[in-house]
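Case study.
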Amino acid sequence: MYRYDEFDEAVVRDRVTQFRAQVKRRLEGSLTEEEFTPLRLMNGLYLQLHAYMLRIAVPYGTLSGRQMRQLAMIADKYDRGYGHFTTRQNLQLNWPKLADVPDLLSDLADVEMHCIQTSGNCIRNVTADHFAGVAADEVEDPRPTAELIRQWSTLHPEFSFLPRKFKIAVTGAARDRAAVAVHDIGLRLVRNDGGEIGYKVLVGGGLGRTPMIGKVIREFLPRDELLAFLEAIMRVYNLSGRRDNKYKARIKILVHEIGTDAFIAWVEEEYAKLDGPSVNADPAELARIAAYFAPPAYETLPAVSESFEAAKARDPDFARFAATNLFPHKVPGYTAITVSVKPIGAPPGDATSDQMRVLADLAERYSADELRITHVQNVVLPHVRLDDVPAVWAALVEAGLETPNAGLITDIIACPGMDYCKLATARSIPIAQEIAKRFADVERQALIGELGIKISGCINACGHHHVGAIGILGLDKAGVENYQITLGGDPGEQAALGQRLGPGIDADAVPEAIERIVDTYLEIRADPGEAFIDTVRRVGLDPFKPALQPTEARLEAA
Amino acid sequence: MKLLDRHGWTASDVVPVPIEALGDGDAVLLPNDYKAADLLPLQSRLKLIAIAFPKFSDGRGFSIAKALRAQGYEGVLRATGALIPDQFAFALHVGFDQIEISDEQAERQPVEQWLGALTAIHDSYQNGEDGTASILTRRRYAAEAAA
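After joint prediction, the assembly is written out as follows.
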């Protein structure tokens, strides 16, 4: 894991002092509310429906046991003893007080953490594959790149007052778990014909009210040119992105309106003018960063663990967990455990401070002192010996963290919705809870297999509904919550936006409709190995359309 | 209007005129949607370029300044309009020399706040037009010195 040097430390400490002074100037009236708002947003502080909400950065989702334990302490000291893991691999606190925030930031700085650029019209916290360094299909660990981007983008003098927020994601694997195609900039580490490693650069993806898949603007960018090329993209966007309408201000709209070819030409023109060496990181600097992400000291182990196999044979609950929540590790005898923060019937992504402490302990004891937050709002223990999985599982059971649903139908992404968010037009969490309850049976979930449901409580799409295999969008229709269902969305390497299945339905009809969609899938799938998304790709939406109709109408149609 | 630079309040008799009215003048005021490249033919005779900031939250002026410096403009660069003290360091970093603000703002945000904001964050991850060596650059120097 990356460790701050004296420079990184000083920046974060200075930012705390600066924010403390900004709060004071606001309270004294030297800063107007209008002037203060972007300053607090750039430090992750939102004014929400009931209170302030603070978003803590977990850069590229990686943190240590000590950091997780500090988050637990902070949740107890300044909030109500729990936190919410977000789709940008961050942690949100829903009830901090403005006056406490500077002290809270100082406590974060004690463990090399901050809230810098977790909100606001700036370059946001960069995200990466949560199985970085674990997955066998990886060209390279994406986190050194992500850390370099974190540093370069931090308090960037030129790019802190952009037309709109700006999100960058990096993956180093063939299987895209970082959803790079739906980011403002997506970077895929690739190897060219000459064997050199560089980046495929996608620009203009995004969700929100105008969802778009990112366009490739460079097939291969040499690694050493990354920051200057990013700077060229950012300058084109800062100068030419729309500022007349916040809903048309993201870079995806610029790319769409002028066309991909014209956008490429603008970026390349800007890039040609740039003094690359003044911007790019020295290769030695990237190497310095990369050294922090060197693999932990793995033991040489057999690929099969007898104690692990015996535990599975002994305990069907453990076997179920092992079948769903483990991800193959590239090193024999190891595995990555996805700890589901989606127990049936609870708000997705919420963890108590006690649970955070358990995760911290487990990371220190069994996972090379490392944790990952996933964009699916779960937590990963990335380097666990197979021999240790039964012990980890027992501790998870104790903490209520053993839900065996990673990647399954109850592993739902949901935004906070109308329960917390002032933008929301409908509730999300209660819908997620109802669906999860309906599919609570673990055998049935396993039978259904991999299926991502994603729920947003308004068209801003924080719940990523556009890229849910089943997407649910909550709207307000004449004062009544109304939910639109989409099918076929995919955030991965075959990125696709979901298609609307039909007219919107009432909240209480949603679980039933989802059940009928799933039943239809089970009837028509080619074989049990054909995942839901693949069936939708093969047959299209038509076979699923009757699922939206009330039972009587379907009977009449039949 | 009040003018300040990195040392505090300052004064200037140079009054920039809009680009359309420039004639053979040597001080121009640009709107923040102006393309820096269009100024290339005449920049060598300009003593002062002022860039308008109609709203502090509109950051286009930062990129225009950076682009002007990148294409070799060496005269005075002035940001004029609604910048706030928290942006002062950014403005100097991208190549501005002066900030011009309204009297109302100068009263609400006295010079101490502007100068104080300059040193709020001591280090920067980016190399600056004002000579700031980035953290990345300084790490390299440190490594070279140690070698």
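Observations recorded in class. The longest strand of chain B covers residues 48-53. Chain B has one domain: 2-120. We will return to this complex in the next lecture.
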